[in-house]
Amino acid sequence: MLVIKHATIYDGTGKKLEGKAILVKDGKFEEITDDTNIPVSYQVIDAAGKVVTPGLIDVHTHLGVAEEGVGKEGSDFNETSSPITPQVRAIDGINPMEKGFEDARKSGITTVQVMPGSANVIGGEMVVLKTIGHIVDDMVIKSPSGMKAAMGENPKRVHGDKGKMPVTRMGVAARLREKLIETQNYINGDQNERKLDLENLAKVINKEIPLRVHAHRADDILTILRIKREFDIDITIEHCTEGHHIADYIAKHKDVRVSVGPTMSTRSKVELKDKGWTTIKTLLDAGISCSITTDHPVVGIEYLVTSAVHAIRGGITEEQALQALTLDAAKHIGVAHRVGSIEVGKDADFVIWTGNPFDLRNKAEQVFIDGKEV
């Protein structure tokens, strides 16, 4: 049992709390109370002059499936043998001992979504994990948390260069539609034998999980919104690099959430030529729920807060930045009932910072997952 007192608390819901104490019991937030009302049996952390936030969340990573400093042996995030691979699962490729998990914890990141890459039109299932542990099954918060799909340049390049469909953006959209239709037929009982790929995609058709779609260019974003309407499925837009060009149109789709990033990377291909730090402000101003991502290892996960600082320079407020890394991020990946804010009953994932986390001279001094310092 633990109590944190005398800190400035930003709870992730938009509230700033002074003169309050956080009580933690059995790995959960037990109570937020006056810091003069502390049970004598609790271990006390005096965080005077410090800042407490919820544990941070990166909604779009390849942590543990695209290992750093390993090469081909640690590259397990793109099953490029086929452009359509809904049967694969990121959880089966994750190395939980990869150093990136430690980097995440040291940076105040307590939850991540790990997904396949964007080489395929349909890339496979993803998973949401805590960033502590050596047994990946014990780290899971939600599995599966979505199905990966990709529009545009990547599937065109990877498979088109082999002379296989898709060669064009038309081909990408067509392959996606074909597989969704095949899945609808499977659900309707048109096949007698089990098909793992179709079983997994049926979760998308049945709205058990969203299709999380890699899309940089505005026209690719429009295509996936069109497909969303055709099949009445839930989607999130991942990257949304040119979303600022069509923000008002995206906003008409009230249930669509967006992750923005990795904006700290270079404009390394044509799809990224309009990348900039004002995109998230434009999207937020249009009323779209946004998260910030590193797309680790494209940008190291330890630079998630740095990315948010650049977004602040681009015009968003510190409050918006914190919510993009906490509660809005938790909502994006479907785990807001567990993490993302300091509220009674939620997992006690939180960070004690030496000061304002958006002042890069400060650091995550103590990080807690499920009420235990890590």
From TrEMBL:
GO molecular function, one term: hydrolase activity, acting on carbon-nitrogen (but not peptide) bonds
UniProt superkingdom: Bacteria
The keyword tRNA-binding appears for this protein: no
Residue ranges of domain Amidohydrolase-related in the record: 51-374
Keyword Membrane (UniProt): no
Pfam families in UniProt: Amidohydro_1
Keywords: Hydrolase
Protein name (database record): Amidohydrolase family protein
